[in-house]
Amino acid sequence: MESAKTLSVSRRSSEEMKRDVSAPEGTSPAALMAMGATSPQLSLSSSPTASVTPTARSRIREERKDPLSALAREYGGSKRNALLKWCQKKTEGYQNIDITNFSSSWNDGLAFCALLHTYLPAHIPYQELNSQDKRQEFLRANQALTACPSRQDINEMVRTERPDWQNVMLYVTAIYKYFET
């Protein structure tokens, strides 16, 4: 029986896949390369996405364009409901926070501060917040997230008990994209 040595061939990919290839002892590296080129089990491609199916590749592209689609897949339902569930999960355990919608649940600024506190605890002193001072809480949220491209219109948020749900959702979406993608 001819002894065999094992050559481990690895290709960098998202999963860092490795395969073992058996070759008879004494086989030259050139012969191994030729064997890899003709073997259906061994790919020596240098493309990092060679193992990604076209369907997965298209899903990755879609998620880069619209990160909420991945969130909707994770939580099920519409993108809006998935984002709402994400907010509920992120703010779970925060005192005086009960997010049930994208309007009145956000009217005092505390939900924004709680959401941002999960990422920026040094910038939002959550224990010191006061739901009676809406303007101050919206200012804190805006100041904590100066790098975020979409920021709130504080005057609009302060003057109403039911902020426009589309504006709130737009701002929360910007927070999600900024910190989660």
Mean residue pLDDT = 75
Helix content range: 40-55%
Total beta strand runs: 2
**CATH architectural label of the largest domain:** Orthogonal Bundle
Annotated CATH topology of the largest domain:
Actin-binding Protein, T-fimbrin, domain 1
Report the top-level CATH class of the largest domain: Mainly Alpha
Annotated CATH homologous superfamily of the largest domain: Calponin-like domain
Counting helices, strands and paired strands, the structural category is mainly alpha
Low-pLDDT segments? 1-23, 32-47
Count helical runs.
8
Instruction: Give the percentage of residues in beta strands.
Output: 5-15%
Shape: elongated
For the largest beta-sheet, the strand count, sense and barrel status come to: 2 strands, antiparallel
Lateral strand order in the biggest sheet? 1-2
Tally of domains: 2
- Along the chain, the helix and strand elements come as EEHHHHHHHH
Distance between the termini: 55 Å
**Radius of gyration, Cα only, in angstroms?**
26 Å
Function: Involved in cytokinesis and spindle organization. May play a role in actin cytoskeleton organization and microtubule stabilization and hence required for proper cell adhesion and migration.
Protein name: Cytospin-A
Subunit structure: May interact with both microtubules and actin cytoskeleton.
Organism: Bison bison bison (North American plains bison)
